[in-house]
Structures are given as C-alpha cells and as structure tokens.
From TrEMBL:
It comes from the Bacteria. The keyword Disulfide bond does not apply. The keyword Signal applies. Residues 1-33 form the signal peptide. Keywords: Signal. PROSITE patterns: PROKAR_LIPOPROTEIN. Pfam families: DUF305. Residues 60-202 form the DUF305 domain. It comes from Nostocoides japonicum T1-X7. This is DUF305 domain-containing protein. InterPro entries: DUF305_CopM-like, Ferritin-like.
Length: 203
C-alpha cells in the first residue's frame, strides 16, 4: 500500500508548524485507510466493510459475481426437473431438490458478501462462465419429458457442475478469505459427488 509522502524539510518555524498540522491531519485520514485494508487482508467473515482493492480480494469479488448467476441457472434447471410436465425420474427429482437446497443459500451468502464489500452483484459482461447453458439449451430442455428429459438434464448438469468446480478451484488458488475458501471447497466437494451420481445414472 502506498502512503502519503511526509514533509522532511522545514525552512522556518511557521513552515514547521504548518507541516506538523498537515502531518497530523494526514495521519488521521491514513489511519482509517490502514484499518480498512487490514480488514480486507485479514477478512475472515462477512462482516468486513473494506473495499476490495487487493488482487486476492478482486479474485474473491469476481468469484462471487460469476458464481451467483451460475448457481441461479443450476437452480432454474433444478426447478424444471421438479415440474410435473418434465416427468423426471425419482432419482433426477431427488438430485434437483438437493441442488436447489444447496445452491439457494449459497447464492444468498455470496450476495451478502458483495453487498458488504461494496461491490456490484452483477457479473461482468466481458467474462464467460464455464459450464453455463445458452438460451437455446434451456428452451430445448424445457420442451423434453420422461427419459429424454432425464438424459438431457443429467448431461447438462454434469457440464454445469464441472464449470462450477473449475471456478471454485481457481479462487482456491488465490483467496486469503477463510469464508470464500470454505464455500469454494464445499462447492468442489459437493458438486463432484453429484457429478459421480449423475454419471452413474447416465451409464
């Protein structure tokens, strides 16, 4: 963190006095900035009010901004499987219910982080999210039912989960935030287990 240059020469008594006053004011202002950045570097909970300015914190912000819509689409896919018209198998319906119950609260958690950090809750438009489905994919899925729905849903959700795992592993390599690390690891572990189940259903 760069710090304001402090006056090092004083030619006359009045200049010295003015310099000391300015120095005192600068120190007061700098104290709050130092405190804020300390809160960012040591952020271990959602209560930090620091602005995300370090490279690691920027990675945390990007992770949350991108994972929220990623999770939202997974919940949307889960909702399709739970609709009667999909005629999904009990196994698919159970997975869909599990996904919705896990990812809904995670969306709320990440939204809270971004609000606390003073960051936008919208994903950057110039970043792609691995595993995301296009509108055409979602429309096609919504038009299927029975075994055709099951196969397409499972295939799409495997790819979607693999994308989420990639994003989570990326932030695990950069974050120093204990809560971000915990959530990211939970995504890796939980979604990998679900991928294993889905691949077994597809076999």
């Amino acid at each position: 963190m760069s710090r304001p240059n402090r006056p090092i020469r004083r030619s006359v008594a009045t200049a010295a006095a003015a310099g000391l006053v300015a120095l005192g004011l600068s120190a007061c202002g700098n104290s709050g900035a130092d405190s804020g950045m300390s809160g960012m570097s040591g952020m271990s909970g959602m209560g930090s009010s620091a602005s995300p300015t370090s490279s690691a914190a920027s990675g945390d912000v990007m992770f949350a901004q991108m994972m929220i819509p990623h999770h939202q689409q997974a919940v949307e896919m889960a909702d399709l499987a739970l609709q009667d018209k999909a005629q999904a198998s009990p196994e698919v319906r159970d997975l869909a219910d599990q996904i919705a119950k896990a990812q809904g609260p995670e969306i709320a958690t990440m939204t809270s982080w971004l609000t606390t950090w003073g960051a936008s809750t919208s994903a950057p438009m110039d970043h792609s999210m691995p595993g995301m489905m296009g509108e055409g994919d979602m429309t096609r899925l919504a038009g299927l039912s029975g075994s055709e729905f099951d196969k397409e849903w499972l295939t799409m959700m495997v790819a979607h989960h693999e994308g989420a795992i990639t994003m989570a592993q990326d932030v695990l390599g950069t974050t120093s935030n204990a809560e971000v690390r915990t959530l990211a690891q939970s995504i890796v572990d939980g979604q990998q287990a679900e991928i294993t189940t889905m691949k077994q259903l597809l076999a």
